[in-house]
Design brief:
Blueprint: E1 3-16, H1 25-28, H2 32-44, H3 47-52, H4 71-79, E2 96-99, H5 102-120, E3 124-142, H6 159-170, E4 175-179, E5 187-191, E6 198-211, E7 217-220, E8 228-230
Length: 231
């Protein structure tokens, strides 16, 4: 695919709040010594920490970021891939997925969480997600106006897109910019390189609520604003 220079500020990545808040271990430990033991056990099986020490198969410490705000959040995106991979990554190395528009990020989260709920046939759930805002400036492979790569934007298969991503990653690509599959006229980006995720900051928290149906209500945390949207 062609390469385009992307300069975009304020992209959006929604991360479940449970992954970015204080460790649950602190709430179950009897005392400081017990907490230290629990952390040792947890760290022994933590993929991000394994990668930071050179023990992960798909990514190493030379790929990751250190000493910058939210470094652990950035690194986690690459060190904790889904077992089946994502649209533009395989199961051994993740990517930082972000949307140019907040509504597209919300649509992506709503779609994937709805699949999880459908698998267990439970449509009553309330989950919060934190919006991590980041900037990008660099050359990315551009699929937005190239019909040759339509299969990479299939709504029900990642096969073609993962094959393309594997080749691009091996060739040194920074990542891919592409039309959102879940939101019309919106744009998403998959960044392959942690150092290219720049100026990360935490935005609003959003609550997704399923109340008996497949489409959630999305409400901004009342501590930040009183606006409501849905997808």
């Amino acid at each position: 695919p062609p390469v385009a220079t992307i300069r975009r500020t304020d992209t959006h990545r929604l991360v479940p709040s449970k992954h970015t808040r204080d460790s649950v271990l602190a709430r179950i430990a009897d005392d400081d010594a017990h907490l230290a033991d629990l952390f040792d056990i947890d760290q022994a099986t933590n993929d991000r920490l394994s990668a930071e020490h050179g023990a992960a198969p798909g990514i190493g410490p030379h790929d990751l970021v250190f000493g910058v705000p939210y470094a652990s959040v950035v690194n986690a995106a690459f060190c904790h891939p889904h077992p089946l991979g994502g649209r533009f990554n395989g199961p051994e190395r993740g990517a930082w997925y972000a949307a140019f528009e907040l509504e597209a990020a919300q649509a992506e989260v709503a779609f994937h969480k709805s699949i999880e709920l459908a698998e267990v046939d439970v449509w009553n759930e309330s989950v919060t997600y934190d919006d991590y805002v980041a900037d990008f400036s660099g050359a990315f492979h551009d699929l937005r106006r190239d019909a040759r790569f339509a299969a990479c934007l299939a709504s029900d298969s990642y096969r073609a897109s993962q094959q393309l991503a594997e080749r691009l990653l091996a060739d040194g690509s920074s990542g891919v910019v592409y039309p959102s599959v879940r939101r019309h006229n919106a744009t998403c980006l998959a960044c392959f390189r942690p150092p290219l995720v720049m100026h990360v900051r935490k935005g609003a928290t959003w609550r997704f609520t399923w109340a008996g149906g497949e489409t959630p209500t999305i409400a901004r945390d009342p501590r930040t604003a009183r606006t409501v949207s849905s997808v």
